[in-house]
Every structure is written in structure tokens, then in C-alpha cells.
């Protein structure tokens, strides 16, 4: 299984209190955008950071209760993908390479009015600055000043003008490396700071749960077919536990309001809605533009087997369709700790799942716990033990055997 990486660098206040983290793309595979990628490097990098943050690491692990700064080019800002970023958790940094035109200004204005926050990245406060960025400045929350490309005199002059016209605008001095620079830019009105004087970017890594290209293609096809319902879509997720786990992590990171704990993938699909799922899937496809080279791990295949088998066991036991969905969900989650590389107790603190599913995962309790025990015995070749447990809950051994064969 491949690893993914993301770097974060603190942004602090004038009193050196943590304000936010900038999240930075890191790739140690020797390629920036994957084989055959048809998107620009900046677009790919933004998509990859967004997917890794929301789907794999989780906001809590990377930034806690702070906000995340993320770089974005014009294509990403104009795309629907930006809607997948929780607006209360992100500040969108407009790259200095972005060409400012009427289309961009209109889009940024619409997003700002919808509650999104923006920063201008690597600003050089020379005589052309206001001409180039004047139309965008009314929508900016923060201007990041590259102190390596500015003199203290031009920063002071521009700061006075910015504060006069945009009193709520925050100025951030970046690439601060010494105490003297920190004090100098505090004195000219900067209230936020970033640079090696405070901390170098820290790299985090984890096992990748990137799905295969075939799975994404199947899901995209289903989502674009108006006749496919939530159960068909959920069925595609259940065949790809790695993708299902990313969906659950995204729902948690994006701060959706859970009216009740999640008990099945059908419920999660219904909660997010078709339109948002389409956006989410396309963003994942862009971020995994080399996904065709990635095969699902044996662990993901085993989790998919468990999901299928537990659904069949629940049906043999006379469960309701809702309980069958819950059993399939249990099978998919049962290897999530290994797939994510964290303890099951920690995972379940981050994902709000039904109490009966949690009890089965942690303690093997209830009928769901029995279903899971049967599956584990089958996997270990303990046919006698699986038949005994099945018999305890009234399942015929021959029917269990048929279900096991059908689940492979």
C-alpha cells in the first residue's frame, strides 16, 4: 500500500499564538501529477491536498480546531470542486501566478458572499500591485507579504494605504526567519506571521486509501444515471471499502450535521446527496489521476468480502433490510483500523457510528458481533467453529456454506 504525504506550517499572531496552518503538497513518488494527468500541476496539487486532508488524514489530525490555508489556481477557484471545502475551515490562497480578470473577480465575489475566505499569496507591494489586484482586494481577508521580495519601506507605504481602504484586512508577513524581521514587520502593521523563525513545514504521512480507477469510473457512471438509487450507489461503495472509509472521513471532516449516528453506507450516501457525491467523486478522480496504476490492497478486498458475507448472514438470520445494510457496514468497518493504521477505539471516536455496530467492533457484542465472528472463522478456515456459531443463532449450515461461496 502506498503512502501519502502532506506538509503543514504554522501561521501565528503577533503574540506568537497559533492562528492557522498552511497545508502544502508533498510528493515523494518522483512525479507531480501522475501518469497521463491532464490537469495542471497547481490544480493537481490543490486537489491532492484537499483529498488528503478531508478524506484521509482528517481535519482534526492536521489542524485541530484551527483553519487551514490551501493554495489554489484559477481553474480550481472556478471549478465546482471548491464547494467541497468546508468554508468555515479553509482560507483559499490565490496563487501569485493567477491572472486576475473579470471572470475571476466575479467568482471570488460570489464565493466571498457565500462565506468563503480568501488570501492573496506572495504579494509584492510595488507600484503595480494595486493595478493588478485592486479589483480583488475588496474580497480578501488576508494579504500575504513575501518579505524577501519587498523592502520594509514599500511594505510600510502599501500597508498604510491598504489599512485606509480596507480596515478589516489582515496582513501576513511570510518567510520570516529572524527575530529582527518579526519585530520589524510587527511595527509596520502585520498581525500574522509565517516562516522558519516560528517553525519549518512538518511533514505527516499515512497509508494511502486511494481507490482504483475502475471503482471511480463505476461510481461516476452510477451517479450520472438518474435511474440509479441510493442502494445501488451504496452497493458500489460496499465493494470498495477504501472508498467508503474516505467518504466517512470526509463527512466527519466537512462537519456535516449528523441527526443520528451513521448505521450504513446507504444512510451516508443519502446524507451527502447525489450532487455533492458527484463533486466529491470527480475531485477524487482528479487527485488520483494515476489511480489506474493502483490496485486495491488485499485488506480492502477482505473488507469487501466481509461486507458481502455479513449482509448474506443477516439475511439468513431473518434481519430487516435496514439491519442487512448495517451488517454490510460492519463488515466494511471491521478492518478500518488496519487500513487507516490507527486503533479501532480512536477511529470510532472520530466517526459517529450506530452503538450496536460499535459494540460489535469493540467487544463482539450482539447479533452483529456473532455475524462478524462467523466471518472471521471462515477466513481462518475454522469451518466447524463458524457452523457452531451459525447454529446458535438459527442459521442452517448448508445455507451458510452457499453464502460464503457467493461472497467470494
List keywords for this structure.
single chain, 408 residues, alpha/beta, TIM Barrel, Hypothetical protein af1432, 8-stranded mixed beta barrel, 20 helices, 51% helix, 14% strand
Q: Would you spell out the secondary-structure blueprint of this structure?
A:
Blueprint: E1 3-13, E2 18-26, H1 41-57, H2 59-63, E3 67-72, H3 74-78, E4 90-94, H4 102-113, E5 117-123, H5 129-133, E6 142-146, H6 152-165, E7 170-174, H7 179-187, E8 192-194, E9 202-207, H8 213-223, H9 230-238, H10 241-253, H11 265-272, H12 274-287, H13 298-316, H14 321-333, H15 336-340, H16 344-350, H17 355-363, H18 366-379, H19 383-392, H20 397-407
Parallel strand pairs: 2-3, 3-4, 4-5, 5-6, 6-7, 7-8
Antiparallel strand pairs: 1-2, 1-8, 1-9
Helix pairs in contact: 1-10, 1-12, 8-9, 8-12, 9-11, 13-14, 13-18, 13-20, 17-18, 18-19
Radius of gyration: 25 Å
Give the ordered list of helices and strands: EEHHEHEHEHEHEHEEHHHHHHHHHHHHH
Q: Span between N and C termini?
A: 22 Å
- Relative strand content: 5-15%
Mean pLDDT over all positions:
83
What overall geometry do the principal axes of the alpha carbons give? elongated
The secondary-structure class comes to alpha/beta
| SS summary, helix count | 20
- What's the total count of β strands? 9
Descriptive notes:
Helices cover 51% and strands 14% of the residues. The protein has 408 residues and is an alpha/beta fold. The protein has two domains: 3-206, Alpha-Beta Barrel (TIM Barrel); 209-407, Hypothetical protein af1432, CATH 1.10.3210. The longest helix has 19 residues, at 298-316.
Amino acid at each position: 500500500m502506498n503512502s501519502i504525504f502532506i506538509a503543514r506550517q504554522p501561521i501565528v499572531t503577533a503574540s506568537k499564538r497559533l492562528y492557522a496552518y498552511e497545508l502544502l503538497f508533498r510528493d515523494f513518488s518522483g512525479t507531480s501529477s501522475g501518469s497521463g494527468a491532464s490537469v495542471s500541476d497547481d490544480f493537481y496539487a490543490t486537489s491532492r491536498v484537499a483529498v488528503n486532508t478531508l478524506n484521509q488524514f482528517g481535519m482534526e489530525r492536521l489542524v485541530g480546531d484551527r483553519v487551514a490555508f490551501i493554495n489554489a489556481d484559477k481553474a480550481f477557484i472556478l471549478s465546482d470542486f471548491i464547494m467541497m471545502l468546508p468554508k468555515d475551515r479553509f482560507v483559499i490562497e490565490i496563487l501569485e501566478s493567477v491572472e486576475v480578470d473579470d471572470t475571476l473577480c466575479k467568482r471570488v465575489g460570489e464565493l466571498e458572499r457565500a462565506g468563503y475566505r480568501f488570501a492573496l499569496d506572495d504579494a509584492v507591494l510595488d507600484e503595480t500591485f494595486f493595478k493588478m489586484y485592486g479589483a480583488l482586494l475588496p474580497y480578501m481577508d488576508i494579504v500575504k507579504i513575501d518579505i524577501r521580495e519587498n523592502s520594509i519601506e514599500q511594505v510600510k507605504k502599501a500597508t498604510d494605504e491598504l489599512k485606509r481602504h480596507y480596515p478589516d484586512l489582515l496582513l501576513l508577513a511570510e518567510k520570516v526567519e529572524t527575530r529582527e524581521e518579526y519585530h520589524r514587520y510587527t511595527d509596520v502593521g502585520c498581525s500574522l506571521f509565517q516562516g522558519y523563525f516560528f517553525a519549518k513545514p512538518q511533514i505527516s504521512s499515512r497509508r494511502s486509501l486511494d481507490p482504483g480507477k475502475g471503482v471511480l469510473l463505476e461510481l461516476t457512471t452510477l451517479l450520472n444515471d438518474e435511474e440509479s438509487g441510493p442502494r445501488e450507489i451504496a452497493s458500489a461503495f460496499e465493494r470498495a471499502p477504501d472508498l467508503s472509509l474516505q467518504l466517512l472521513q470526509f463527512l466527519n471532516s466537512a462537519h456535516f450535521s449528523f441527526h443520528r449516528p451513521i448505521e450504513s453506507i446507504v444512510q451516508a450516501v443519502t446524507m451527502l446527496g447525489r450532487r455533492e457525491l458527484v463533486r466529491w467523486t470527480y475531485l477524487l478522480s482528479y487527485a488520483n489521476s494515476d489511480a489506474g496504476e493502483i490496485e486495491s490492497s488485499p485488506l480492502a478486498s477482505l473488507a469487501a468480502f466481509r461486507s458481502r458475507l455479513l449482509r448474506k448472514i443477516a439475511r439468513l438470520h431473518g434481519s430487516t433490510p435496514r439491519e442487512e445494510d448495517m451488517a454490510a457496514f460492519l463488515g466494511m468497518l471491521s478492518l478500518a483500523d488496519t487500513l487507516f493504521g490507527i486503533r479501532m477505539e480512536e477511529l470510532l471516536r472520530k466517526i459517529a457510528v450506530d452503538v450496536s455496530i460499535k459494540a460489535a467492533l469493540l467487544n463482539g457484542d450482539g447479533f452483529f458481533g456473532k455475524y462478524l465472528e462467523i466471518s472471521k472463522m471462515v477466513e481462518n478456515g475454522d469451518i466447524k467453529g463458524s457452523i457452531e456459531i451459525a447454529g446458535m443463532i438459527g442459521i442452517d449450515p448448508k445455507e451458510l456454506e452457499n453464502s460464503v461461496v457467493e461472497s467470494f
